[in-house]
Amino acid sequence: MMRQFDGDRLIIASHNAGKIREIGALLEPFGIAVSSVAELGYEEPEETEDTFAGNARIKAHAAAQASGLPALADDSGLMVDALNGQPGVYTADWAETGNGRDFMMAMTKVNDLVAASGASAPHSAQFRCTLCLAWPDGHDELFEGIVGGHLVWPIRGEGGFGFDPMFLPEGEQETFGEMDPAHKHAMSHRADAFAKLVAGCFDR
Ligand SMILES: O=c1nc[nH]c2c1ncn2[C@H]1C[C@H](O)[C@@H](COP(=O)(O)OP(=O)(O)OP(=O)(O)O)O1
Ligand SMILES: [Mg+2]
């Protein structure tokens, strides 16, 4: 039996401004007041697991414990077939420079490795997202989302965040970096996971 969300306040357990913006937009129709762990000044827990679900649970439970409120975390990443699913759970790590994140550098690295792999274009890839909704009593629910597509080079568009300008979703003309945000929110890996969360927990 799935736990229903019946509160009117939720913590977004993310420090990523792009994700916070997207999750806030997805939650908006439900009239739930949201604050993020970034604006509350909570520390980022270490993401020590090697699965999206494991890291989503770490982030959601840390925020639910700290706030005493239900918390929603997102762990996500880009899986490239020619790289056997890399960078995957380590997508954010690939952008780490020691002085903040550099996604131009990370996208260049992915493109170089794909070229070196000898695989022929188009280079298929998927974005994956696991959402974890955790309650302060330690209970949680997990929801997984995916969107398939392929990589483009050179990158296209200035919108979105992270690897968006490098990813062309299946059947689309625009990369996530070129797309209107509302269109991305209707078809992304995050939207897919969110639809399952709504069906499972917001069905009230
Ligand atoms: O829609 C997306 N469009 C483009 N790139 C994306 C997307 N979704 C995840 N990504 C990439 C970038 C992100 O940095 C990494 C996830 O890493 P991940 O640890 O889950 O998130 P994060 O460290 O950026 O924020 P936080 O852990 O505080 O939620 O995958
Ligand atoms: Mg993270």
Structural write-up:
With 204 residues, this protein is α/β, with parallel strands linked by helices. The chain has one domain (9-201): Maf protein. The chain contains seven helices and six strands. The chain has helices at 17-27, 37-40, 52-67, 91-94, 103-117, 181-187, 189-201; strands at 9-12, 33-36, 71-80, 124-134, 140-151, 167-169. A six-stranded mixed sheet has the order 2-1-3-4-5-6. β4 and β5 (140-151) form a beta hairpin. α6 (181-187) crosses α7. The longest helix has 16 residues, at 52-67. 39% of the residues are buried. The model has no long low-confidence stretch (mean pLDDT 97). The site of magnesium ion has 2 residues, from loops. The active site is at 75 (proton acceptor). Pfam families: Ham1p_like (PF01725). Substrate binds at residues 14-19, 76, 161-164, 184, 189-190. Belongs to the HAM1 NTPase family. Keywords: Hydrolase, Magnesium, Metal-binding, Nucleotide metabolism, Nucleotide-binding.
Low-confidence stretches: none
Strand content: 15-25%
Structural class: alpha/beta
Spell the H/E element sequence: EHEHHEHHEEEHH
Ligand catalogue:
2'-deoxyinosine 5'-triphosphate, magnesium ion
Helix content: 25-40%
The tally of structural domains comes to 1
CATH architecture: Alpha-Beta Complex
Q: Rg to the nearest angstrom?
A: 17 Å
> Looking at the chains present, what oligomeric state does this protein adopt?
single chain
- What form results from the Cα inertia axes? globular
